[in-house]
Amino acid sequence: AALGGAGNVRVIEVRAGRLRVGLVDAGRANLAELTRLATRGAVLTAAGAVHMLQGDAADTQCEALRVRFD
After folding, report:
1. Across the strands, what pairs with 52?
2. In this structure, what are the phi and psi dihedrals at residue 10, rounded to the nearest 5 degrees?
3. Residue 1: its pLDDT value, please?
């Protein structure tokens, strides 16, 4: 629900210790919940992507999200 539902997720990637999740509609994302879930915080970009700062856990969490949303 924090990402706005499975239909709202376009792409999930790992980038230098963070998860980058491309969204269909950024307005459906719950930034407060994403910030709570991220190890070091979360940022919603103007391009409609959320970056969740995860550190060393980013690779593992990326795979878990891909299984859930792909």
Report:
1. 19, 42
2. -95, -45
3. 83
Q: Is residue 9 a contact partner of residue 25, using CB atoms and an 8 Å limit?
A: no
d(CA 30, CA 20): 15
DSSP assignment, residue 61?
H
CB 3 within 8 A of CB 38: no
Query: Rounded CA gap, 45 and 51, in Å?
Result: 8
Token pair belonging to 62: 């990326």
Mean pLDDT of 18-39: 94
Q: How far apart are CA 21 and CA 61, in angstroms?
A: 12
Other CB atoms within 10 Å distance of the CB of residue 9 = 20
Q: pLDDT tens-digit profile of 56-65?
A: 999 999 999 9
Dig out the tokens for 63 from the structure: 């795979």
